[in-house]
Design goal:
This protein is an alpha+beta fold and 572 residues long. It contains 18 helices and 21 strands. The protein has an 8-stranded antiparallel β-sheet, sandwiched between helices. Strand 13 and strand 14 form a beta hairpin. Helix 11 crosses helix 12, helix 12 packs antiparallel against helix 13 and helix 12 packs across helix 16. The radius of gyration is 29 Å and the shape is globular. The protein starts with a helix and ends in a 5-residue tail after the last strand.
Length: 572
């Protein structure tokens, strides 16, 4: 061996030794305890090896040019792990951005776990994504730590004394029931989750098992991480919260992406995070694999820098809506508008109203001009920066109108309607498509009787509309300010018309009596072109089928009705 090679080896060994002497103490001091509890020793070594290449031993810190580092690992158990490390210390939007950058393949399987950590001094961020085979088999067992915790909780309950943690005894915590649930969980999830956190998530699981619901529990954290790297009591930082979620029948990576984008848009920092899957199918040697697993998430968040008074209430409401809001709604929700002096986020609730109104009008305006009022043109109107402000005002009128807490009078409502018609007339004179769409949107609000907008666990947004407003002939000509109300119907007017807009589907229900029967038709076109054709005649089909059913039912007490649901399967 030449002298140069030996010198090079000695110099490199000295540098590596210096890096180890500086990096390891920093790492042990600043990484949170949960990192060392949840991350395997083998993974910790992989992380240290990657970090050592970015650590400046002379300055005792990570290189300013390090930016972000990522690497992929195939684990002995068949799982696939992707790790991102970032050295900025700013967590707002980091997991969301990394998830968007993540490219997945069939060989990786499905997202089955996420762990996110921030060092106590805010200089290092870890995001670890785990992918597993297509099925989740469970196999967890109740450990001694969980057993002793349950024993103490049950003892306090039986004696009527206060338990040390803020949690109450629940009958589902009985050993037999709990063991059945634990058997559905990944052993690592059971072992590394704190007893109280695990039981709170078990309660969420029981709340939604067998449904399509989303369960969420938010509470102030009892520990916070300061920028100086110290851990203190919750009173030192009132803006730290734990969010715990359970979602059924959801694609984990898709659900997570929507939630993280929402948090990023609101300026909410995710300091730590965990995602696990719980098997929802029957267990046993003859049980069939199921994709209907329950996705369990735990997020440690910090409130925005300038939070609104009810920011957490709105956040919980909107997180639950992310499962059911379609892609166009989510795109609109993230847009910024300026109605008052300061710009503001449109938000999911207003975006849902706008999407519902515009999707219903597509079926109605085609009789006036099928080319001018195509689905694309209508969507372009409501998302155009010039007209989105008007669409937001229309949604505000709708929300205030049906808010159970609102004290709005009929006179105030009519005044807002007329003011919006005047503003639309002023702002859209040269754009006939936008003029017609926006006028018809506010008219739809005016002639809506009922909505389920404020039902907490709804799956879609529904309205009941004045039947004369949708009568044949009302949409054949452009909106006329001198005759804003419905014209005299040219055909038989139904008793009731309902419209429902949800993720990948729209539905019209038409009935010709208060008590009616007729059934439901599902329409699932195979191409986007056929979908547009079916959407254009959606209301006409529901009306004609219900009218035919009314004629069939002439000799029985029930009137005729029909529901036609148009399902978008094209992009699945």
């Amino acid at each position: 061996m030449s002298c140069d090679e030996q010198t090079l080896k000695e110099n490199l060994s000295k540098v590596q030794s210096s890096v180890v002497d500086s990096l390891v103490p920093w790492f042990a001091k600043n990484m949170p305890k949960s990192y060392f509890t949840n991350v395997s020793p083998e993974a910790q070594i992989r992380h240290m090896r990657a970090l050592s290449a970015q650590f400046d031993h002379e300055l005792g810190e990570f290189s300013k040019s390090a930016g972000a580092v990522s690497f992929h690992s195939e684990l002995p158990n068949g799982e696939y792990e992707v790790t991102f490390m970032q050295f900025s210390g700013d967590r707002i939007g980091v997991i969301s951005d990394k998830l968007d950058e993540l490219s997945t393949g069939e060989h990786m399987g499905v997202l089955s776990g996420v762990m996110a950590y921030t060092s106590l001094d805010q200089k290092l961020i870890f995001d670890i994504f785990t992918f597993s085979p297509k099925t989740v088999s469970g196999g967890g067992v109740i450990g001694e730590n969980l057993k002793s915790y349950l024993s103490a909780l049950k003892d306090a309950h039986d004696k009527g004394t206060e338990f040390s943690d803020p949690i109450k005894w629940n009958p589902i915590f009985e050993p037999e029931k709990l063991a059945a649930y634990v058997a559905r969980c990944n052993p690592s999830y059971v072992e590394h989750t704190g007893p109280r956190s695990f039981l709170k998530q078990y309660e969420l699981f029981e709340k939604i098992a067998g449904t399509e619901d989303v369960a969420l529990f938010a509470e102030a954290s009892n520990l916070v991480i300061s920028k100086e790297g110290t851990v203190g009591a919750a009173e030192a930082h009132e803006g730290a919260y734990w969010l715990r979620l359970a979602l059924t029948n959801s694609i984990p990576i898709s659900a997570l992406r929507k939630i993280l984008r929402l948090l990023k848009q609101r300026g909410i920092s995710v300091e730590r995070m965990h995602l696990d899957l719980v098997c929802a199918s029957n267990l046993g040697p003859k049980a069939k694999p199921s994709s209907n697993n329950v996705c369990m998430m735990r997020l440690f968040i910090l409130q925005p820098k300038e939070p609104e008074n009810d920011w957490l209430v709105k956040l919980q409401r909107d997180i639950k809506r992310t499962k059911w809001a379609d892609d166009f709604t989510m795109e609109l929700a993230n847009r910024s508008i300026q109605i008052q002096e300061e710009p503001e986020e449109l938000g999911i609730q207003r975006a849902e109203v706008i999407t519902m109104l515009s999707s219903m009008l597509f079926s109605m305006l085609k009789s006036q001009d099928a080319y001018a009022f195509s689905k694309t043109n209508i969507n372009n109107v409501v998302k155009h920066s010039r007209y989105l402000r008007l669409a937001a005002k229309i949604s505000n009128v709708f929300i205030t109108r049906f808010d159970p807490k609102s004290n709005q009078t009929e006179e105030d409502f009519k005044s807002q309607i007329n003011a919006l018609h005047d503003e639309i007339e002023r702002d859209t004179q040269e754009d006939t498509v936008a003029r017609e769409v926006l006028h018809r949107m506010i008219s739809t609000v005016e002639y809506t009787y009922r909505t389920n907008l404020f039902l907490e666990d709804r799956y879609a947004l529904a309205i009941r509309v004045d039947t004369q407003f949708l009568a044949p002939g009302n949409f054949d000509k452009p909106y006329d300010a001198s005759q804003p109300g419905p014209t005299t119907p040219t055909g038989v007017t139904p008793y009731g018309v309902f419209y429902v807009h949800g993720r990948r589907f729209n539905g019209f229900h038409v009935r010709f009596r208060d008590i009616a029967r007729g059934g439901m038709r599902l329409v699932s076109p195979g191409t986007s072109e056929q979908l547009a054709i079916e959407a254009a005649r959606h209301y006409a089909e529901a009306y004609n089928l219900a009218f035919a059913q009314q004629a069939k039912n002439k000799d029985i007490p029930e009137g005729g009705s029909k529901c036609v649901v148009l399902v978008d399967c094209c992009s699945l």
